[in-house]
Amino acid sequence: MNRPIRRLAAVAALMFVALLVNLCVFAIAREPGLDSNPLNRRERDVEFAQDRGLILVGDVPVATTTPVKDPFAYQRGYPQGSLYAPAVGYYSYDYGRGGLELTYNKELAGTSSTQWFDRVVDTATGAKPKGAFVQTTLNAAMQTAAVKAMGSYRGAVVALDPKTGAVLAYASLPTYDPNALASHDLAAAKAAAQAYEKAAERPMSDRAGKEIYPPGSTFKLVTAAAALENGFTADTLIDAPAQLKLPNSTAVLGNQSNCGGDKINLDQALRVSCNTAFANVGATLGPDKLRTQAEKFGFGTAQLTDLRGATSRFPAKPDQAQTMMSAIGQYEVAASPLQMAMVVSGIVNDGVVKRPYLVSEVRSPELRVLYRHVPEDQRAMGADNARLLQQMMINTVKSGTGTRAQVNGVVVGGKTGTAQSDPARPPYAWFVAFAKDPDVVVAVFIENADVERSDIAGGRLAGPVAKAVIEASR
Known about the structure:
Elements: H1 3-36, H2 41-48, E1 55-57, E2 60-67, E3 74-77, H3 85-88, E4 90-92, E5 96-98, H4 100-103, H5 105-109, H6 116-125, E6 133-136, H7 140-150, E7 154-160, E8 167-173, H8 178-182, H9 186-198, H10 220-229, E9 237-239, E10 243-245, E11 252-254, E12 263-265, H11 266-271, H12 275-285, H13 287-296, H14 320-326, H15 337-348, E13 352-354, E14 359-363, E15 369-372, E16 377-379, H16 383-399, E17 412-419, E18 428-435, E19 440-448, H17 458-472
Parallel strand pairs: 1-6
Antiparallel strand pairs: 1-2, 2-3, 4-5, 6-14, 7-8, 7-19, 9-12, 10-11, 13-16, 14-15, 17-18, 18-19
């Protein structure tokens, strides 16, 4: 063989090797990204035409798939409309997925790695593939009660089982109808999506677990927990002046009402939500102890992986004045309603926080378990101190700022909150509560109630909402 032919053969061999390498890189590295690329209409067409699995609340389907006579073959539907939209989400051809439809997409579509055996069997038998069904922890009565009690308020409600972390209610209002986004009339779906996106009320925002806000006086529960864990008792006396000048600042902190004296104990301070007393507690403890306590309750960690929840925060390096404001849930403290429900869950569960979850299990169409929730917990405070704080919260509902959450024949503890966010807008109203036998925790957040600024108070607006959800849990 002469030299030119050998050179040509070598070049051809190199090109063949390069082709093989490119094919391997494409198959291993690039194919998953191309498959999930929203511009890949072929992949989207295939997935949209699958028999997608159910999403269940109890034994009732809240996301269904129905055979239809159109190019897509199957229509995704939501029989309860907007009721479960913040949790269940939506499944749209042009606008993708949200909620559980997003986080459990592969299982619902039947394409997850745990469903490989089912796909092999389907291929061998010629059966059409079916998606798995997702079992949620939601309680229909409590979800309905939460939405009804909120009415026209803009905000969120989260209810938890403190002994397990199961999410019992998950409402964000105003909300949207996922059926409009799932429509096979793509022009109508586009119009609906654009209307939702342009709406000033932001109906597709998840205020329950994916947004954070100043928690106001509900954060005093974290400050009280830190105080009890660091030597305070319910009877420890605290300076509670009518006004308190913040150190190295011209700002003056006042109280919403008479705290009951210039020196009051910790129990009284929580019952009447005394700002100056808790600011002084914060100054005594310092930022590190407050931050450590907040982190034990879940601050600084993303919550509810089922929905890719937000991370609540406590400021990194506040000075003394900022620490005092942080102790009452202001300055740069920010939390989701889900996070504040976790705080109460840790208190009522004798100091142990159960990580919240929304999906209890995923099963194949043949009922084979593909996923089952494994509980996770973290101790936030000692059991004795948690019981002390429970009683302080019970006192708050009996004779303090939380009386509107009282339920006949039920032991209820709670904490109100009114949080300043921006001088140009009304404050937020909060109420967090627990009930016993059966144990349930509720966090209510009202972003905008469309009432006079002077009428906004956590107990007045949010307390009755918590009461309605507690009553629905009986």
